[in-house]
Amino acid sequence: MTTVETVETTGTGPQVEVLPARDVPLGGPRAMTVRRTLPQRDRTLIGAWCFVDHYGPDDVAATGGMDVAPHPHTGLQTVSWLFSGEIEHRDSLGVHAFVRPGELNLMTGGHGICHSETSTAATTVLHGVQLWVALPEQHRHTARDFHHHAPAPVPLDGGEARVFLGTLAGDTSPVPTFTPLLGAELTLDPGATVTLAVDPAFEHGLLVDHGTLTLAGTPLHPADLGYLAPGAATLALTNTGTTPARAVLLGGPPFSEQIVMWWNFIGRTHEDIARARDEWQQQSDRFGEVHGYPGDRLPAPDLPNLALKPRGNRH
Questions:
Q1: Rounded distance, CA 161 to CA 169, Å?
Q2: What residues does each domain of the chain span?
Q3: CA-based nearest residue to 266, from 162, 178, 158
Q4: Which segments carry the region annotation Disordered (predicted)?
């Protein structure tokens, strides 16, 4: 069971929760292993961010890379962000796109969508994050949608930012979201300290990709997710190592709704999930069809015997 470590940086300073990752197989029979930091028992969301998978660097010649057959989503948006490699995306909206390093692909599931994800033949090392955003009640049945954005690097005093959602360091992503969000890749020079102005109404999570960073004075290691509650107008990050460090910063105001998240679906009740599962198994028009993937769809797993319960963050 995952342990959450709470570290108080000073007597009156902010408390950083350190959420370690757990290894999870992803993608059915041809599963690749990812490191998952959200959701956890004690923390379901950071803002509307409800799912954080971190994978690689994987030598695809040894691991086989990514091959996730067509599968469904409801009630969420998927956010794909790569550090290296290339992923081919196909969905039932008819989008055929590629995920490349430093470029955002955001897919809105809403009422229902399905898609496939495969690393391309050109990929030698696959490395990145896969993130989900929970849609609020009034928008969780919205229509399918897809956005692509390649943010320009923004220089920082001691590093660089690429802002793929929201606003940071004077740059704003043009990609629309259904709740206020922040998503950015940060790189810090060796020994550098960067202080970022942020919205004090946001809670934040910093996922370390490589290097050793401190967030508000708390050490974070690769694959750790450091969490800070709302209230801070600035975030202080320090690269304590002798090589560049990289992390992904996520944020948003606390998500007040409870959600039921099971397999690839987000709903509000057990019945929402059971209905979505049945419709996927029956090949309902709700999810559409992926064209061009050389294989079968992923079947849904069996539902648990007990009713799925809504969850939110513990306060």
A1: 8
A2: 14-252
A3: 178
A4: 287-315
Tokens of 205: 């999570």
CA dihedral 225, 133, 72, 19 (to 10 degrees): 20
Tokens of 172: 């704003």
* pLDDT (tens digit per residue) in 294-314: 999 999 999 999 999 999 876
Strand partners, 259: 311
DSSP code at position 281:
H
Give the residue carrying structure tokens 């294989």.
295
Q: How far is the C-alpha of 192 from the C-alpha of 12, rounded, in Å?
A: 24
Amino acid at 83: F
Relative to beta strand 5-8, strand 193-197 is: unpaired
Q: Which of 299, 296, 311, 300 lies closest to 274 in space, CA to CA? A: 300
Q: How many CA atoms lie within 13 A of 1 on its CB side?
A: 3
Asked if residue 127 lies in contact with residue 58, where contact means CB atoms within 8 angstroms, the answer is yes
pLDDT tens string 32-79: 788 999 999 889 999 999 999 999 999 999 888 899 999 999 999 999
